[in-house]
Amino acid sequence: MFNIRRSRSSRAAAAIVIAGLTALSLAACAGGSGASSSQGTAADLDAALQKGGDLTYWTWTTSGQAQADAFMKQYPNVKVTVVNAGTAKDEYAKLQNAISAGSGAPDVAQIEYYALQQFSLSDSLLDLTQYGMNDLKDKYTASTWGAVNMNGALVGLPQDSGPMVMLYNKDIFDQFGLPVPTTWDQYVADAQKLHAADATKYITNDAGDPGYANPMIWQAGGRPYKTDGTKVTIDLQDKGTKQWADMWNKMLEPGLLSGIPTWSDDWWKGLSNGTLATIITGAWMPGILESTVKDGAGKWRVAPIPSYDGSATTSENGGSAQSVIKQTKNPALAAAFLRWLNSSDDSIGVFLQAGGFPSTTAQLNNPDFLNAAPAYFGGQKINQVLVDASKNVSSGWEYLPFQVYANSVFADTVGKAYAAKSDLNAGLVAWQNNLVTYGNGQGFQVNK
């Protein structure tokens, strides 16, 4: 999940954090960041588990402590201290400070896929290839495995994924005679019909969020970011990006989208009282909806995300990996813990019990998982829809090497188009200009 309720001060803090991270990134490209390195083998992992030692693990997942407890029960010579260092950008700020200081970083940290490249480029993450972890490739979905492989290095192991799907309120669709859309043209038509029939209701909400816009651009075929070392290309007017913006404008400009911010109290109320008819979101959302919007029991269903041509093409919204930080004093033990955390059935079982959506194909293809039919979703076998989505994530997407900064200034650029209900393309151009200036100022060679 992404928390989009950012203050102006937090955006400024993000810029400061990324300035420090970028300096390390460019130093690494020029010849190394000074981080310690290690050389090991797969055999070192089992030996490290037997020898034991102390580890620190930073995570914001609700299952983190339970997973660590299960690990320590299995490997009593190892003590794992779990620290919630804050979600996403809050953790990244603390992690970057520790990396810059040369001390205080955890042995293992949770990092979202969109932020991995920044820490990888700064040479802060241990390459797990040396420990034979490339052999784990077939355990994961193609999109999540691709997300942890950067510049020839395996910089983490995937934990969860967020293939985009559509959750919809069947009661609202039935009440207003709306067909479940398979294309975005049909989705826009549903938006028009619903709001015309009842001006208090909207097909969905969008107050402007880069964590939402990027996967929507991805699904539309946009590939606006390309990185080759310090050379970066940004084109937020490529064919796919414009295809998304032009489609979304058909709802934004005439006021067919609710401006309620996602995760706000009003958003939860809108999902509960039928004000919002759909959520375009990651596969991790059904469990959250079920546990939070109690009044929606029996009303909601899951469907594939609409596409531009009716195909099953989708993208990823959210998801995290865990990485070993190079600052660790015990790389083999940290890598062994990570291997267990994100590839063992025992650990993933704990993660599933907490409502997580896994990235491992064994769990995704388990008949019990696929055939689960929660009453909240009217007895629908929703995991079959979610797993099918995970198989249809389009390839070739890249994030920027300063994506955390990019996300922090989205509200100041594209966000203005949302506020004015005006052309998103103009906002995207403003965002691009900001990013080009910033990237060049930090020593990258940015072209548009």
Q: What is the spatial order of strands in the main beta sheet?
A: 2-1-3-12-6
Largest sheet composition = 5 strands, mixed
Q: Any idea what the shape is?
A: globular
CATH architecture of the largest domain: 3-Layer(aba) Sandwich
Uncertain residue segments: 1-17, 30-36
CATH superfamily of the largest domain: Periplasmic binding protein-like II
Radius of gyration of CA atoms, rounded to a whole number: 22 Å
User: At the first level of CATH, what is the class of the largest domain?
Assistant: Alpha Beta
Q: Pairing-aware structural class of the strands and helices?
A: alpha/beta
Number of domains: 2
Descriptive report:
The protein has helices spanning 8-31, 42-51, 64-74, 89-101, 113-121, 142-147, 170-175, 184-197, 210-219, 239-252, 265-273, 285-292, 331-343, 345-353, 361-364, 367-370, 382-390, 403-408, 410-420, 424-441, and strands at 53-58, 78-83, 108-112, 149-150, 153-154, 157-158, 164-169, 225-228, 231-234, 278-282, 300-304, 320-324, 445-447. A hairpin with a 2-residue loop joins strand 4 (149-150) and strand 5. The strands form four sheets. The chain has a five-stranded mixed β-sheet. It is of the alpha/beta class.
